Amino acid sequence: MENNAQITSSSDHDDFNALPVSVKTLDKGFMINVLSEKSCPGLLVAVLEAFEDMGLNVLEARVSCADSFHLQAVGGENVEGESSMDAEAVKQAVMMSIKNWSETTEND
């Protein structure tokens, strides 16, 4: 069973809050995609910290941070047994990390 979901948030004063984030449920974990046409220094660290806070291990990842930002990662839960996390929770956590990162970036 696959669960596909996409969430975007927008802000008039900050393009980074409008970054598309998609999360797809896999058999054991999630496929997470974040894309920006702009370079986003520090965003990779913020997203990886969100994964850690959620208890997700990065099992596989492709990242481009040069002229644009693109992260495609497969994350699996640290705990054995039933999955206690769903795609919506993962999306919300990633979106919150982007929001917090963008607010920090604005203040620099």
Percentage of helical residues? 25-40%
Count of individual domains: 1
- What is the CA-based Rg, rounded? 14 Å
> What low-confidence regions span 5 or more consecutive residues with pLDDT below 50?
1-14
Helical run tally: 2
Task: Assign an overall shape.
Answer: globular
The rounded distance between the terminal residues' Cα atoms is 43 Å
Please state roughly what percent of the residues sit in beta strands, choosing from under 5%, 5-15%, 15-25%, 25-35%, 35-45% or over 45%: 25-35%
What structural class results from the helix and strand content?
alpha+beta
CATH architecture: 2-Layer Sandwich
Strand line-up across the major sheet: 1-2-3-5-4
CATH topology: Alpha-Beta Plaits
The number of E-state strands comes to 5
What composes the largest sheet?
A: 5 strands, antiparallel
Question: CATH top level?
Answer: Alpha Beta
CATH superfamily descriptor: ACT domain
Sketch the topology as an H/E string, one letter per element. EEEHEEH
Overall pLDDT, averaged?
81
GO cellular component, one term: nucleus
Protein name: Plant bHLH transcription factor ACT-like domain-containing protein
Keywords: Nucleus
Domain Plant bHLH transcription factor ACT-like: 21-98
